[in-house]
Write a structure and sequence with these properties.
It holds the Pfam family RVT_2. This is Reverse transcriptase Ty1/copia-type domain-containing protein. The chain has six helices and four strands; from the N terminus they run H-E-E-H-E-E-H-H-H-H. The chain is mainly α and about 190 residues long. It folds into two domains: about 70 residues, no CATH class; about 90 residues, no CATH class. The chain has a two-stranded antiparallel ribbon. About 10% of the residues are buried.
């Protein structure tokens, strides 16, 4: 496989850059930018990366300015200070809005003073649509999953487990106590 020239078949070329459409391009880009962040000791800025689009935020204005200045030296960038649309989604920046919503969800499901866990789901947990545990209130379950689904817009760390409980339960007549326990655990995740 590749390109050979008569008399120079033993020679090969090594790409210094990964081409955009190659399967390994996203991994190469992530490795490159991850190394850059580590080399420049960026630890206090939240950076969201999607392909070649970066969103970064902070709570320290000086850190934000420095990050923007330093990263602009390495990568060609266009800076938009207040994000209004990203990947087709409208973004509204409001103080404490999602935190207020998360607090209301915890209060609604009487989980505000719960004991926190450091994983959203038990690692050994096996869920099945054929679970034969005690049946729970479907309306309560749907309300809980709907609330969690809304929270996934800012809590990317719970997307997978919310999908797991939502998808498997879709095929059940009613959620079982195992599903309710698993779903309540997501609320306890810190």
């Amino acid at each position: 496989m590749g390109f050979a020239m008569k008399g120079q078949e033993e020679k090969v070329l090594k790409f210094k850059k990964v081409l955009h459409d190659l399967k390994q391009a996203p991994r190469a880009w992530n490795s490159h930018i991850d190394k850059y962040f580590q080399d420049n000791e960026f630890v206090l800025v939240l950076v969201f990366l999607h392909v070649d689009d970066l969103i970064f935020t902070r709570n320290n204005p000086n850190l934000f300015e420095n990050f923007n200045k330093v990263i602009s030296c390495e990568f060609k960038m266009t800076s938009i200070w207040f994000l209004s649309y990203y990947l087709g989604l409208e973004v509204k920046q409001m103080n404490n809005d999602i935190f207020g919503y998360a607090k209301k969800v915890l209060e609604k499901f009487k989980m505000f003073d719960c004991n926190l866990v450091n994983t959203p789901m038990e690692g050994s947990l096996k869920l099945s649509k054929f679970d034969i545990g005690e049946k729970e209130d479907l309306t309560l379950f749907k309300s809980l999953v709907g609330s969690l689904r809304y929270l996934t817009s800012t809590r990317l760390d719970i997307i997978y487990v919310v999908d797991v409980v939502d998808v498997v339960c879709y095929f059940m007549e009613a959620p079982t106590s195992t599903y309710m326990k698993t779903t309540y655990r997501i609320l306890r995740f810190d």
